[in-house]
């Protein structure tokens, strides 16, 4: 029986690209959950690069039509040993920092309940062996990864490391798996000085600062800094008033 792989596809399309090459080397059934806006989703549904058995679109189902079932949410927390309100408070779009919309508690519960039911339905149907997912950055993909981990589904999370242009794959963001087994043979070893030199060669900030973009050879970051300073002088009322009264 083939293994089943569930792929979370976000606007970076990183996991989609990985799946393209993975399906050539690994015979499995592939399923996808997309987290895309309607323009990207429309184009994605026309693709024939990866043969997905079934695709779910996260935004297809309405959030507001669901009646909140507090008993279901309480049982969900017990079943997966997690606090949904902790998840809510960690989501930046639900906090007061969101300048575009302030979610009510009722709306937040509707969204969380939608996510819980959707992911449980997908996992019950697919029963995947693996989850391919990018580094979690929203409550929804974090929730899916936690449910999978609780169900014993192997989470393969791709995230950037803090070392040069290297990436890492683990079950949690920015953490090595404790049971990770690395073969000792054919692995090059470097001392601290060699590692330090490697880091200096892959300093993204230094590289960006040194890139000339025309107009006198100034770097891109220098131009951005100058632009923000000009915008502040032009549009910031407090800055203009303080400059006016101090002259």
Structural features:
globular, Rossmann fold, alpha/beta, 10 helices, 15% strand, 247 residues, 45% helix
Can you characterise this structure?
By secondary structure, the chain is of the alpha/beta class. The chain folds into 2 domains: 168 residues, Rossmann fold (3-Layer(aba) Sandwich), CATH 3.40.50; 43 residues, no CATH class. It has 10 helices and 6 strands. Strands 3-2-1-4-5-6 form a 6-stranded mixed β-sheet, sandwiched between helices. Helix 5 packs across helix 6. It is globular and about 60 Å long. The C terminus is likely disordered.
Question: Outline of this structure?
Answer:
The protein is of the alpha/beta class and 247 residues long. The chain has helices spanning 14-25, 38-44, 70-80, 84-89, 105-126, 139-150, 192-201, 204-209, 220-235, 237-245, and strands at residues 3-9, 28-34, 52-57, 130-134, 154-160, 167-170.
How does the helix and strand content classify structurally?
alpha/beta
Distance between the termini: 79 Å
Mean pLDDT figure = 84
Low-pLDDT residue intervals, each spanning 5 or more residues = 243-247
Named CATH topology of the largest domain: Rossmann fold
**Gyration radius, rounded:** 23 Å
Shape: globular
| Percentage of residues in helical conformation | 40-55%
Q: How would a textbook summarize the main sheet?
A: 6 strands, mixed
Count of distinct structural domains: 2
H/I helix tally = 10
The CATH class designation of the largest domain is Alpha Beta
Number of DSSP E strands = 6
